[in-house]
Amino acid sequence: MNENLTLAELRSRLDRLGASGVLRVSDHDYARLFGINEVAAAKAAQFAAKHRCVSVPGEDAVYFRKSNSDAYGSAKLVQDAAAMSR
Prior knowledge:
Elements: H1 7-16, E1 22-26, H2 27-34, H3 38-50, E2 53-57, E3 61-66
Antiparallel strand pairs: 1-3, 2-3
């Protein structure tokens, strides 16, 4: 993902994700958009939920995964692979 991501661009990308799609947001962009404490994690989770996604922290990024409506309203967890959106 590019540096200096805006909330508007993140919203747009999350809205365009297909079922079980994944979007990687760098730690730099995540910290700039949401902050770096427990409140930030809650804000990111709430933001993700508004776009039918879940936020999953990773080693050097945060991943937003689109919920799979076929999985009874919960996110379908699958192995991260080259199919991730960037």
